TrEMBL record:
Name listed for the protein in its UniProt record: Craniofacial development protein 2-like
Gene3D superfamilies registered for this protein in UniProt: Endonuclease/exonuclease/phosphatase
Species this protein is from: Elysia marginata
Domain of life: Eukaryota
Length: 138
């Protein structure tokens, strides 16, 4: 989506942000929360209690600051489908960001079988011989 450097903080904000974030909210975080509320989105990785090491997603050069600035945003309708969300701090991905991993329970919709099967009129085939029908191929 983009790098907003938004921090949503550790306090709960309605049904959008959970109480298990990291740090304090900043101005860009307020903008992100407002956008999420307008679009009926939820910040998934703030709803799960984790160790602080599993929360921070970015580390500054020199290991001076650690912030949670990468988020998983989902529609609030599917909030209960997310089972966990955490970072993988040991991942060797060549970046100063840690990957955010979510476990999601996907419930697939069952396909409906057609109620009526197509029936062929076999009597009509018996009345007219196939050799007498006018078939044109295109």
């Amino acid at each position: 989506m983009g790098d907003f450097n938004a921090k949503v903080g550790a306090r709960r904000i309605g049904n959008t942000v959970g109480s298990h974030g990291l740090g304090e909210i900043n101005e860009r975080g307020e903008m992100l929360v407002g956008w999420c509320q307008e679009n009926d989105l939820v910040v998934a990785n703030t709803w799960f209690e984790n160790y602080p090491r599993r929360k921070w997603t970015w580390i500054s050069p020199g290991d001076k600051y650690r912030n949670q600035i990468d988020y998983v945003l989902i529609q609030s309708r599917f909030r209960n489908a997310v089972l966990s969300a955490k970072t993988m701090p040991g991942a060797d991905c060549g970046s100063d960001h840690n990957p955010v991993v979510c476990k999601v329970h996907a419930k697939l919709k069952a396909l409906k079988k057609p109620k009526h099967q197509m029936k062929y009129n076999l009597k009509a085939l018996k009345k007219t011989p196939i050799s007498e029908t006018n078939l044109q191929l295109t």
